[in-house]
Amino acid sequence: MDSGPSAIDLFCGAGGLSEGLRRAGYDVRWAVDYDESAVETHRENHGDYAIQADIRETDPAEDGPDIEPGNLDLVAGGPPCPSFSTIGRSKLGSLEDRSVDEDDRNVLYLDFLRYVKHFQPRAFVMENVPGMLTDTVTVESDTVQESLPIGEEQEVEQSPVGEEVPVTEVIIEEMEGLGYTVDKFLVDAADFGVPQHRERLFFIGRQIGKALPELTRWYTHREPTDREKDQQMQIRPELRDSTDKSQETFKTGLSSVLPPFEPDREYRLPYLTVADAIMDLPPISPDGEMPPNQATEYTLPPVSPYQEWARNVPDGEDWEDQPLRNHDARWHNHLDLSIYKLLGHGVGWNIGQVSTRLQPYRDDVFSDKYKKQNPAKPASTILAHMRKDGHMFIHPTEARSLSPREAARIQSFRDTYWVPESRTDAYRLIGNAVPPRLGEAVGVAVRQTILTDSHTDG
């Protein structure tokens, strides 16, 4: 049995957070998700401990893991929260009259708290979208208990009826009502070595003690200097000309472009870029002629350190013998391909900014846009919307959108991480996932700041 801290993953999706926690040394013992493809993907990569279920219909005591309350180190997860704008505060904090037939994903975080309440973990981590920071709810009742989760009865200061209250304030009140010290943290995945700008909000709570991890202390990467910006790709040291002095980054003593997470690192590496992440992958094309529609073998060795890390070739094996999966091009019509070629690196057009002759959709129906990724910068946020079209994720040098494998690389999934062959499922699962590298960073910070102290105090 793994001796690392124990954890469970609620709303586990394809397993990005589980993978990050595993890399951080956790023993993830149980996971749950409603989506069949997500659970299949999680099981393929992590074993059979994930269950498919609607969490609203589960009982932590009967359906959850066989762990005694108080013996679990971490409850983690990212409940979907599309919008709180139309929900009043009393409804937000009530489990009464909920139906699985209703689209009440806004309050699924209450089911996260049900598991926290039952298992009484030493810590919890709840991940969500940054838009939650701007959402507010209206106080609809002066009855405090209506806004508290699962029947708790604590003395909580109540805002006046009719007042707009930040959703995050309500959620933190409810978490604190369960006996936890809680704070929220907004971070960008690029600061942790993910080749993508992806902001995410984390609520972190601890049961014993007051110190919470300041996630900024665990940054490993940073905005590049002007000189570093001229380099579109970091080259593996053994492949560089020995006279090339343009990349002093690798003279810092760091053995990897993905250094381990340590607080207050003296030197941080420049952001990883789209080129660092994907430019070693073989060319493919939508028409399937030359290049082919799908590539199942690598044609070049990894050029950047990140590419070498992503391929994850076992010791003693050759990269040429490793299969390449999920690297296939979706079909694009001739108009899309022509526009893709017109765009420069990092250039985007919002639908509606150009003539109707140069756009595929009505601008009063779809708020879509074209965006060619810049090879010299981190990618823009990978979204599940890719399953519908790839206009926002155009390849830097090829007239097509990113393949599922390229999207997975940008999310910090290694090439050996299994995802479905179906492009629709793959794009959706990859886009919705927590980047494993980000999950690892948060896991390490929680382990070092909270769990070590908790075990010592206990």
From TrEMBL:
Protein name, as recorded: DNA (cytosine-5-)-methyltransferase
Record bears the keyword Translocase: no
First-tier enzyme category under EC: transferase
Enzyme Commission identifier(s): 2.1.1.37
Family indicated by similarity: Belongs to the class I-like SAM-binding methyltransferase superfamily. C5-methyltransferase family.
Region (Disordered): 222-248
Superkingdom, natural source: Archaea
GO biological process: methylation; negative regulation of gene expression via chromosomal CpG island methylation
Entries under PANTHER family matching the protein: CYTOSINE-SPECIFIC METHYLTRANSFERASE (PTHR10629), DNA (CYTOSINE-5)-METHYLTRANSFERASE 1 (PTHR10629:SF52)
GO molecular function, one term: DNA (cytosine-5-)-methyltransferase activity
Keyword entries, A-Z: Methyltransferase, S-adenosyl-L-methionine, Transferase
Keyword Phosphoprotein in annotation: no
Taxonomic lineage: Archaea, Methanobacteriati, Methanobacteriota, Stenosarchaea group, Halobacteria
Xref: InterPro entries: C5-Methyltransferase, C5_DNA_meth_AS, C5_MeTfrase, C5_meth_CS, SAM-dependent_MTases_sf
